[in-house]
Specification:
The protein is of the alpha/beta class. The chain is built from 6 helices and 8 strands.
Length: about 180
């Protein structure tokens, strides 16, 4: 089964893409790669034999035949839109809860320290992206009911998730500050 992920290098799209690839699914990523982060994240998935990247949907349509029961997944603001292309075509809209994780744009939320990140997570009852995807992947693949838990796990695990999120944010800041134009 093939899944096409629009915005595959958006931080949520990237996690969805890598999760599907780790499960052995074929993924076609659509992303214009206009940011240093996009180029950086491409390095993590670009060599996977189950991954193909196209800058635009039109490029994919020129080079890839539609698959049986192919899924199209798009992140539209705070919605995850899942379209199933088959005889029983359907479209699901899943409202994304507050999420946090590696490659999240913390500046978008005015977060400048790990303590502020921790506070933001608590105030928004945010889910860690990996935990969310663990619950949502069956929805994407099998059209099952969505049933994700709104908890981040035990305290030490939460601290590790915060640390990983913070490290990726610092790496992102380094990437964008060293960018040459």
């Amino acid at each position: 089964m093939r899944t096409t992920v629009y915005q595959c290098f958006h931080w949520v799209g990237y996690h969805l893409t890598t999760c599907l690839l780790q499960e052995g699914y074929e993924v076609i990523g659509i992303d214009p790669m206009y940011t240093p982060l996009s180029e950086h994240l491409y390095l993590f998935v670009g060599r996977n034999s189950n991954f193909q990247h196209f800058y635009y949907m039109e490029d994919k349509e020129k080079h890839v035949q539609p698959g049986d029961k192919e899924r199209l997944v798009n992140i539209q603001g705070n919605l995850l839109v899942i379209e199933i292309l088959s005889e029983e075509a359907s479209v699901d809209h899943i409202e994304l809860p507050a999420l946090f994780g590696e490659w999240m744009d913390l500046e978008e939320h005015s977060i400048t320290s790990k303590n502020e990140l921790r506070t933001w997570i608590e105030e928004h009852n945010a889910l860690y992206i990996g935990d969310f995807l663990e619950e949502i992947i069956p929805v994407v693949l099998n059209h099952q009911e969505k049933n994700y838990l709104n908890e981040t796990g035990n305290a030490s695990l939460l601290e590790k998730k915060i640390e990983n999120t913070w490290k990726s944010f610092l790496e992102l800041k380094a990437l964008t500050s060293n960018q040459l134009y």
